[in-house]
Amino acid sequence: MPIPTYQEAMLPVLRTLEDTNERHIGEIVNTVINGFSLTESEREQMLPSGQSTVIGSRIGWARTYLNKANLIEKMPGRGIYKITGRGLDVLKKNPERIDNKLLREFPGFVEWIRPKKEQNVVAPDSNFLESEQTPDESLELAYRTLRTNLSTEILEKVKACSPGFFERLVVETIVKMGYGGTLQDAGQAVGKSNDGGIDGIIKEDRLGLDLIYLQAKKWESTVGRPELQAFAGALLGKQANKGVFITTSNFSSGAREFVKSIASNIILIDGEELADLMIDYNVGVSVSINYEIKKIDSDYFVEE
């Protein structure tokens, strides 16, 4: 079964507290997860940020929404919750589902979702109330969309640049990743080709304890097995066993299979991966807006 949404998790969360006992959020999460009979893979699936599991995040938000509607309440002590009289009344009606539509019947929830600067405005019939995504998931989806669009735009710019500019761009990216020593050293060690790409040997580290053979091709067509065979031969001729092949296009399945079958360690970076690396290491991009996502520091409120 697909991983339940946070709205689908609301009723199971409330039912775990139906006996009126106080429970820790960890116990609530485990009980709800077990009730959904998720596979091990579904239990372990992480949000793109890697900060929490998808199901754990969704159950956490279900708890938050129920709390804002005063169906459950937080008790003294870290992460302890109990059902309220209102929550018991809701369960007595034997609902098939608890969702945001139902929660809008309660003033506390309406007040929570109301724009804070417009207190006279009624609860908005906004998309987020109908969405099955948690705020965390919506934020991460928006981030991934922005990043994907930026990556596409970067790749278009890279493909349109001159061979010389492409050479400098690749060198700067490799250096910012921690290879090639200094930018000046790496710049002197590469280049000299006339095929629109760069070929050369750069330092793996600042001390030059090992070397990496680098080839980059500003191509539109797919890089196939013959190009990788030639590159592997060039490595052999340089008595090197480490190489990086960068292209603005992509690699054929035959090329990727060939790389796996040889003794030399060759890393393949296609156009999409190059654009992602440029974003990660701030090559050709600048920060537009910073958002800080904060959470409560529970340790701060512990009184000795």
Structural class: alpha/beta
- What proportion of the residues is helical, as a percent range? 40-55%
H/E series: HEHHHEEHHHHHHHEEHEHEH
Largest sheet: 4 strands, mixed
Number of helical runs? 14
Radius of gyration: 27 Å
Total strand segments? 7
Strand order of the largest sheet: 4-5-6-7
- Tell me, briefly, the overall form: elongated
Instruction: Provide the low-confidence segments as ranges.
Output: 118-125, 193-197
End-to-end gap: 46 Å
Strand content: 5-15%
Provide structural commentary:
- The protein is of the alpha/beta class and 304 residues long.
- It has 14 helices and seven strands.
- A four-stranded mixed beta sheet has the order 4-5-6-7, with helices on both faces.
- A hairpin with a 7-residue loop joins strand 4 and strand 5 (211-217).
- The protein starts with 5 loop residues before the first helix and ends in a 24-residue tail after the last helix.
Secondary structure elements and their pairing?
Blueprint: H1 6-16, E1 23-24, H2 25-36, H3 40-44, H4 54-68, E2 72-74, E3 80-83, H5 85-92, H6 100-103, H7 107-113, H8 127-130, H9 135-160, H10 163-176, H11 183-189, E4 197-203, E5 211-217, H12 225-237, E6 242-247, H13 253-261, E7 265-269, H14 271-280
Parallel strand pairs: 5-6, 6-7
Antiparallel strand pairs: 1-3, 2-3, 4-5
Outline:
Helices cover 48% and strands 11% of the residues.
Features:
single chain; 304 residues; alpha/beta; 4-stranded mixed sheet; 11% strand; elongated
